[in-house]
Amino acid sequence: MSVKVIQVGLGGWGTNWAHTILPQVKAVDVVGFVDASPEVLKRAQETLGLSEAKCFPSLDTAIAAVEAEGVLAVLPTAGHKSVSEMALKAGKHVLVEKPFTSTLEEAQALIALAKQADRVLMVSQNYRYQAAVRTVADLVRKRTYGRALSALIDFRQNWKVTGHRYHDIPGPLLLDMAIHHFDLMRMIFGENVQRVACRSWNTPDSPFKDHAAAHALLALESGMMVSYNGSWVSRGTPTTWTGEWAIECEEAELLWQARGVGGAIADKVVLRRPDGTTEDLPMTPVELIDRAGTLNAFAQAVRGKPPRYFTSGEDNIQSLATSFASMRSGAQDGTWVQLSDILP
């Protein structure tokens, strides 16, 4: 039986969810759509073929009008807290887009509320639902090639090429983009970040108000070090959205990437041995990839069977804290920031 949900947010990203993702996931049935803008609602009705009876100006109106078990919050980050809070208080399960919330205090409040209401609170970290990602996470956690010793992550994109226009948002790299990479890092290595030292900057021609490039050194709880280089203003060869990863293990190195630009399948996992020989490794198939995988996982969790690598709010606050710690370190000229200092 499908999980009935209400989608909140019908802007560009919300429309993309409704048009591209929802039809793929048979486990979910969207019974209502919410947007505060009458113009946006009307445009959605025209472009998506939605009936007026399914469209509402507010979440409380929708909750009163239709029977739903969950809420899909795909509006701008500033609205995540209020929408998720209203949904949880109404007894609904919640799937909210990343970044989880605007502050760690908001995230902690929602986690506590979800526990009190005994409802699922999930954050959409869609990069987890890629074949290469799942394959590497399983190999590393099983220690197939020995312990992981260190890792390098490179992310290079140019906003002019990708069409990224979020020039005014805080943390366009470290909060809006690198949170994907930090979240994958936690998933793959199965541990949280203990402290981070980060330098961030803008190039002279950058249109971003906040820093769009950064280099971070992240120390995991085991003491393992991960080096992260990221840029929204790169003139170099672009990477895929997951970035290019090199994970050194005791017996060999894992090189991998996933999620091509435009949603193209670009998954690849290469094993490089100490003698320099390489081998393309077979990958674990993923039935529903990317956001469709996230939405399907949400439905499974609502039905009481959260899948492996599930991104609950309680888990995802560690990824959010890693982004905020990196931003704080960058603002402090690269000094080490302990996550325990910003996430009691």
Automatic annotation (TrEMBL):
Gene3D superfamilies: Dihydrodipicolinate Reductase, domain 2, NAD(P)-binding Rossmann-like Domain. Residues 4-124 form the Gfo/Idh/MocA-like oxidoreductase N-terminal domain. InterPro entries: Gfo/Idh/MocA-like_OxRdtase_N, Gfo/Idh/MocA_oxidoreduct, GFO_IDH_MocA-like_dom, NAD(P)-bd_dom_sf. This is Dehydrogenase. SUPFAM superfamilies: Glyceraldehyde-3-phosphate dehydrogenase-like, C-terminal domain, NAD(P)-binding Rossmann-fold domains. Signal peptide: none annotated. It comes from Inquilinus ginsengisoli. Residues 133-242 form the GFO/IDH/MocA-like oxidoreductase domain.
